Fold this sequence. Notes:
The structure is a single chain. By secondary structure, this protein is α/β, with parallel strands linked by helices. It has one domain: Aldolase class I (TIM Barrel, Alpha-Beta Barrel). 34% of the residues lie in helices and 21% in strands. The chain has an eight-stranded mixed sheet with strand order 3-1-2-4-5-6-7-8. α2 packs parallel to α3 (110-117). The longest helix is centred in the middle third of the chain and has 13 residues, at 82-94. The radius of gyration is 17 Å and the shape is globular. The model has no long low-confidence stretch (mean pLDDT 97). The structure holds iron/sulfur cluster. Residues 28, 30-32, 35, 37, 40, 75-77, 104 line the site of iron/sulfur cluster.
Amino acid sequence: MKGFIHSFESFGTKDGPGIRFIFFMQGCPLRCLYCHNPDTWSAKNHAFEMTPEEAFKEVLKVKAFIRNGGVTVSGGEPLLQPDFILELFKLCKENGIHTAIDTSGYLLNDKIKAVLEYTDLVLLDIKHIDPDKYKTLTSKPLEPTLHFIDYLTEIKKPIWVRYVLVPGYSDGEKDLHKWGKFVSTIPTVERVDLLPFHQMAMHKWEQIGTAYQLKNTPAPTKEEIDRAENILKTYQLPL
Ligand code: SF4
């Protein structure tokens, strides 16, 4: 069995603790308006096809550097390829390497539950708390992600939650309060990252020839970021 991989990075520092080897997997069922990797959407445009063993060989090349970090699978939506990740993560765990998945939580099935047994940390995007606005932002319903969170709670899986702050889409005061209150009820949340929207992926949208609706949306100002952070802090979130 082979994994369809968009790209990989040996020294990632943003997707989990420590220095990490990151696999960006190909394919995603969501269509987030602010997506910074729209070139991962199609299940077909992968640059690499690797078996889990071949992928793990790449990891071993930098094992000394990631000993305080680990391996993260991101995307796209990595859980579209649970068979590949399950085998890769088994190899990681056999070798004492920390594992993380960066996901929207949109998918959950028995294979994914098996992957989660070998996953140390879930980096979970809760992209909006209002179901209608979630759908506007991602093209998909919020409900599967809530179901995914229930499962993570049930198995006591550590979570780092992420939220992209997009002016005019996800920065409403009421929504931020509702989001913060909800996240404060998830018992295994270890960290919350508020990620300011940016325009650095605009060229990728042009490359794939898809209309980019956020072309004229500005990045949030420092004041807007501080304001959002202060709202979330009222819920004692680990920001
Ligand atoms: S889930 Fe991630 S990769 Fe998929 S569309 Fe949204 S931002 Fe892009």
